[in-house]
Amino acid sequence: MAKITINGKEFDVDAGKNLVDAAEENGIEIPHYCYHPGLSIAGQCRMCVVEQEGNPKLQIACNMRCSEGLKVRTDTEKVQEAVKWNLEFHLINHPIDCPICDQAGECGLQDYYMKYGKYQSEMREEKVLKEKAVDLGEKIVLDKERCILCGRCVRFTQEISKTAALGIYNRGDRSVIGTVNDEPMTDNYQVNTVDICPVGALTSKDFRFEQRVWFLDEVESICGGCSKGCNIFVHHKSGKHIYRLKPRYNSQVNEHWMCDIGRDTYKNSNYDRRLTQARLGGIEMPTAEAIQIWAADLKTLVAMEQTDEIGIWLSPELTNEELESVFKLFAKEWGISKFFSENVSAIVAQDEAIDGLLYRKDHYPNSAGFLQATKTYKIKLDSTDSLVDQLDKTKIRHLIIFGPEADRAKTDNSRIANALTHQTFSVLVTAQLSVAESFPQALGIPSLSHLEKSGSLTNHAGLTQEMKGGLKMFREALSTQDILAKLEEEYRKPLDSDRKLEARL
Ligand code: SF4
Ligand code: SF4
Ligand code: FES
Description:
The chain has 15 helices and 23 strands. By secondary structure, the protein is of the alpha/beta class. It folds into three domains: 90 residues, Ubiquitin-like (UB roll) (Roll); 143 residues, Alpha-Beta Plaits; 233 residues, Rossmann fold, CATH 3.40.50.740. The chain is elongated.
């Protein structure tokens, strides 16, 4: 630890900590553009100047490490004047784009102008015009006029994604960001440059012009795109539509970053991809009614002591809590023993970092938790091959599928769907319309999507992380736990007629 003094107040901070971060942790903002805690120090923007005791010149805080006795001031007139006029230099050639800029509402220039600027501009020169809406690749667009040349994006591609895709070209007020030979960026980490761009120069093709950021709320969650378990914020509007995912800092998992494949997974939660209504044979119905139909068929088989004809296929993306509810109800309470899945042990054994950064080969977010839950509840997992075989031989006449969110288990899905005959009553619990469409004969019950769920996931390294969830975008889509609670409730009601039994006999 080190005792430092900022603006006359003493603070105990970690020795060696960056002064910008140490000040922020203690509620003192030191304005900065080029500094980013996940990148090397560039000392380019000069916005972070402070007065240091014993030093006649202003110093940049981003290049200062905390040591015992360090004394700085951020509140003197000298500092404030330096920051104010430095800001004007940054804005010399910046267009007045705010009304049409995607960054409005979360822009470093807007925020600092209101806090530290508010000057009457003394510039009389014409602004230098530069290229706008430059396509930098599949994911991002650059507005060269808005760029303040902080270099964060360049350092990101050099130090983190290691593509060295971006550079600063030309000199003086002609300097611009660009890609090598104008080649498009192709890597899986492009949108991180949008996150760290302090102004509206880099924008995401997917998000730009879609929504004003001040209409968005956020919840904390965990990405479901692979076994890494990157920590994220889900940005949604009124709980009805999700617009984007942003990385949430976690030093043990993803630090400040996430991949572009993971970012796109929010699309699975929105209306056009969702099963929003329960359905059977193309007829929509309330979820409660679908659960009654399901419970009646289950009761019939149990009453006929044919629980061995009930099979359950599970996707390894269910949360630990969902798995617990499934195993408690079906295995412990009702004695069902036929559980099937993909070969999760093999998926876990073959899992590895694909690109040396974050994205992993196992595209399920909870394979480790899945294997742990099967151990805890002593579940013997059988393969999809075995399920298909048992369906062929009519050994399974009631199949429950807790379906995958995206098209991850597409092959398994289509093999199971093809093996279903009219002798098997099938129930599909899923959030996804495309999955429901691959089982047209099943009783489809809409569940929450990954980003709506609360619960925990265990990542490839055995770290169990919480998803706060709390979103519920469609009235009829329920959490797996609520679906199972309603099923149990219906199950406990007496079988109202022998109609189902007769149909089964
Ligand atoms: S594009 Fe953004 S992050 Fe890159 S140098 Fe310009 S202002 Fe900085
Ligand atoms: S690395 Fe995996 S968990 Fe992280 S953002 Fe990408 S898909 Fe999501
Ligand atoms: S943040 Fe210190 S020089 Fe840019």
